[in-house]
TrEMBL record, chains A, B:
GO terms for molecular function: metal ion binding; metalloaminopeptidase activity. InterPro entries: Creatin/AminoP/Spt16_N, Creatinase/aminopeptidase-like, Creatinase_N, Pept_M24, Pept_M24B, Peptidase_M24_C, X-Pro_aminopeptidase_P. This is Aminopeptidase P family protein. Keywords: Aminopeptidase, Hydrolase, Metal-binding, Protease. PANTHER family: XAA-PRO AMINOPEPTIDASE 1. The lineage of its organism: Bacteria, Pseudomonadati, Bacteroidota, Bacteroidia, Bacteroidales. The keyword Metal-binding applies. Belongs to the peptidase M24B family. Residues 316-531 form the Peptidase M24 domain.
């Protein structure tokens, strides 16, 4: 089989294709045509052409040279995987590393044409890259997919079954969602949706095409009177299809028919998102002379609607948290016992055991992302992913950081706890306490309507800043309802994001502190923006996550009174909600973990 | 004299002028051609045409009607002053109030032409207004100044003497500043500067043309080899002119020659700020076919340079604070004695007395803005300006809010203190304490380089938000060095402002709380962004203002430990710095006011 082709052979095949198409260079990103966070193997073109299989990277190939751009998370892995490939590593964020456009200018003649698969660049990303190349006197062209011909043995498109999420879980019928979407566009317009979680949310469907995210590969066209779902028909059970048709006027058409459909929209008003629709589809619409209406925000109207959870979804989140909380209590009891008995499970064993506790619960539909279980210095690697080489046994000198989440029919969870099973040092206590104080202050904050996440972010960071520390990831990301663990459009981070926090939005609250080579700390709950009865429109957060927060490394004296009160109140709620779901032994354990400080 | 003309007569004269120029409407803003915060009487066209003399307002006149738009600060004043004028009041921010463009659409035929004096609209403001009018199918045209002919007895341009600020105060020579400015533009370009504080800063000159702001009406052109200052020549003493020429190649040309000069720039690169240059000048440059280069930021390169104070300027601020502090100590002692003796001075008398204490010090060059001295419910009016009708005697039931500042050769001050001379109620104590805690938290914060003001703003507001309160003004504005009390480009406020806080920037820290009809509280210091020796680039604030903060209404038990420590440390510093400048009696008084809590 062709799996045995070498990277140089694959590069040669691409170069032949480039030559046939008169391209001076070709750029291979990590995207799929739907701009998903996780990409199915069918679109793993960048990994196939380079041998580098980290989640983030872009390969550029010219007739003579090839290079891969990736970020610091992957420098070591890329060095190893690129060895012997002839592909140079370009370290993003390191001084002296050229941009793609600069590198291309150095290695191409002026006015050379650079090709990209138009399906893998959003219109906005294509336009931006084009501007950069024009500055270097190069041309950018959207092409077809070269890997369709050169990648022998390419994995097929995934074809997992799609399930319908009943209104008992979604809280809003598909017909009603479609009606609300149509209100956001001119009466005679068609909206084209390519972003998979927008489609899943709109149609109350969930799939299994993509790891961790319950999505299915598809496009959706919302017309004035009907909607058309472009999807491999075999994924949709006939009763689901019938229900979609009868209750919401949704017709099903083959995935491959989408491009053809676009050509029928000539003269029509078509609402499109430059950040959510690929360049090839965009060019098809332009070629058909459709009247394009760009979404008024970078994230699109459906994402904005999806971000505000309804009462049923919120109640579902609360149930998911109870299930998750029970699993986490059982897991932590097991972990403590393992430490006590000297069993010293490894990071990988810990992650597997946590999975098993979650899987034993009801309605569990898999993890919402790959569990991060990092002991000691591994905890300081923000996106640590255990490998056979890195896997190490738990010890009692440092922190164990566990960031994990579950998918349930009723909601999605994402939680981080940091444990210490020995005697924390003064530095460890100081660091842990500073992280927790920030987590509490943000969780306990009250703020006026129309507040943006960037205004609140400092509440989670200020104790770290005061001691000269910081964390370079966001404090909070939106989270889907039995959907993607990362979703927009709101965020809580240092960067400005004009989206205001609205009642019904669920996001994480996850400050951290990472001392390279020593330890990492992160404490994360999910928090819901909630109304208050305070006059003049003040909002607050309701903490959804139900799981004790370790106090082993907490300097209780360093808590301010409101922080101590918050912690005690939170723990009382954790006990009140979880205890009825636990055995007497577990209840006793939880009572101890949630006693007031 | 024509001062006796009535508003209807003035409107009639403008309408005749509009008729002669085929204009359907004319818009009169509050601006001068330099977009100054304070406008000299010469450009008081809007006040002259309407009789309304508040600081903010725009008059629109059609053949049949006239209307004035102003904000809630001025609703009452405008109602009174417009009575009998035939000018309707449009209340900005009140539901149902049309925008100017909407109102014009209602009262004009389609395709009518709306005129504005091109000198009073920046290019950016003109373009924005034009877009709004085009949406209403109206046309906007920049005209000459109708008031040049119709306003008989118009006050002349001010012609106060300009003084040179020696390097002892400015810390950087004019030649050096010009060299730095030229580094920010193409070698062969000319930069046009119309904003008065940018000109004063660049040339190390100060004037007296405008109330409170030591500015002089002028334009500046920074050419590659020389600079040209357009100013009434009699304002500049001959030795100053000679020094400018010899040391910095600055030539002086009459103010009126500026427009003629612009016509000589055909074919040249000209750096201009669309927010800082008027439309008439802009059109002259376009007509001459100059190659216009727009400034890359909305505020312009010179404002960015001016905002970062050098060591001499910072040392000057510290001196100004000592002078201001001595005056404020003497003032507060007098005030306490007045209360004790039952003298009950009025707000106006209090403001006058404060002025006298400042004026008794060295290098005082007037107030930096009109003192706000508001007792009780007057303190709740954010921009309270005492009138003969409103003036009231001090009492001991509520707070006295005093916001004031001084201009000194060595710097500019701006300080607010809120006093209570009786027994504060529980609500008064709660409110005062919440304001002070926020003021302290922001002042004491440490933050990474590249932090924006909007990220820190919540530190000043969170205790207020927690009790369901807020204030709708900014927390901090930049302040000039013996220049304008309000300057950009940085700010600390709820709105996003992409300008990062840099070492050397001086701004206010002034949270407040306003209970309409009851009381107002504001506590304001000036704070300097300062480097720290913390690794990885952390900044902090140095508090510059030296004046005790009243603890009469402070609930000391509600302070967190770091807040209490900050207050005690601040008061110790106030005593240390001011005591040597005071008499023994004053020292004893200050020791009492600054004792640890």
């Amino acid at each position: 089989m062709t799996a045995a082709t070498t990277i140089p052979q694959r590069l040669a095949a691409l170069r032949q294709w480039m030559h046939d198409h008169s391209l001076g260079a070709f750029v291979v990103p990590s995207n799929d045509p739907h701009f998903s966070e996780y990409v199915t193997p069918h679109w793993g073109c960048r990994a196939w052409i380079s041998g580098f299989d980290g989640s983030a990277g872009t390969v550029v190939v010219t007739a003579e040279r090839a290079a891969l751009w990736t970020d610091s998370r992957y420098f070591l892995q890329a060095e190893t995987q690129l060895r012997g490939s002839g592909i140079e590593l370009q370290r993003m964020g390191v001084a002296g590393t050229p941009s793609l456009a600069e590198w291309l200018q150095q290695h191409l003649h002026a006015n050379s044409v650079v090709g990209v698969d138009g399906a893998l660049f959003s219109r906005a990303a294509f336009d931006q890259f084009q501007r950069e190349l024009v500055e270097q006197q190069l041309e950018l062209r959207a092409t077809d997919d070269p890997f369709a011909s050169i990648w022998k043995g390419r994995p097929p498109m995934p074809s997992e079954t799609v399930i319908a999420l009943s209104e008992q879980y979604s809280g809003e019928s598909t017909a009603h969602k479609l009606a609300r979407i149509r209100q956001q566009q001119p009466q005679d317009a068609v909206r084209i949706i390519a972003v998979l979680d927008e489609i899943a949310w709109t149609l109350n469907l969930r799939g299994g095409d993509i790891a961790y995210n319950p999505l299915f590969i598809s496009y959706l066209a919302v017309e004035p009177q009907r909607a058309v779902l472009f999807v491999q028909p075999q994924k949709i059970a006939s009763d689901t299809a019938k229900q979609l048709q009868e209750e919401a006027d949704v017709e099903i058409s083959p995935y491959e028919a989408f491009t053809e459909y676009l050509t029928t929209l000539g003269g029509k008003k078509v609402v499109v998102n430059p950040n959510g629709l690929d360049t090839r589809s965009w060019e098809a619409l332009e070629h058909a002379e459709a009247h394009l209406i760009r979404e008024s925000t970078p994230y699109g109207a459906v994402s904005a609607m999806k971000a505000v959870k309804n009462r049923t979804e919120i109640e579902g989140f609360r149930q998911a948290m109870e299930r998750d909380g029970v699993a986490l209590v059982r897991f932590e009891r097991w972990l403590e016992e393992a430490v006590r008995s000297g069993a010293r499970p490894t990071e990988r064993q810990i992650a597997e055991r946590l999975h098993a506790f979650r899987a034993a619960g009801e309605e569990f539909r898999g993890e919402s992302f790959e569990t991060i279980a990092g002991y000691g210095d591994h905890g300081a690697i923000v996106h640590y992913s255990v490998t056979p080489e890195s896997d190490c046994p738990l010890d009692t000198e440092s922190f164990l950081l566990i960031d994990s989440g579950g998918q349930y029919l009723c909601g999605t969870t994402d939680i981080t706890r940091t444990y210490h099973f020995g005697r924390p040092t003064a530095e460890q206590r100081r660091d842990y306490t500073a992280v927790l104080k920030g987590m509490i202050d943000l969780s306990a904050s009250q703020f006026p309507v129309r507040t943006r996440g960037a205004q609140l972010d400092v509440l989670a960071r200020r104790y770290l800043w005061a001691q000269g520390d910081n964390y370079l990831h966001g404090t909070g990301h939106g989270i889907g309802h039995f959907l993607c663990v990362h979703e927009g459009p709101q965020s809580i981070r240092m960067n400005e994001n004009p989206v205001v926090l609205q009642p019904g939005m669920v996001q994480s609250c996850e400050p951290g502190l990472y001392r390279a080579g020593s330890h990492g700390i992160r404490i994360e709950n999910l928090i819901l923006v909630s109304e208050t009865d305070v006059p003049n429109g003040f909002l607050r957060f309701e903490t959804l996550t139900l799981c004790p927060i370790s106090t082993t490394a907490l300097d209780i004296e360093a808590l301010e009174r409101p922080q101590r009160e918050w912690l005690n109140s939170y723990h009382a709620e954790v006990y009140r909600r979880l205890a009825p779901l636990l055995t007497p032994d577990e209840q006793a354990w939880l009572r101890d973990k949630t006693r007031p400080v």
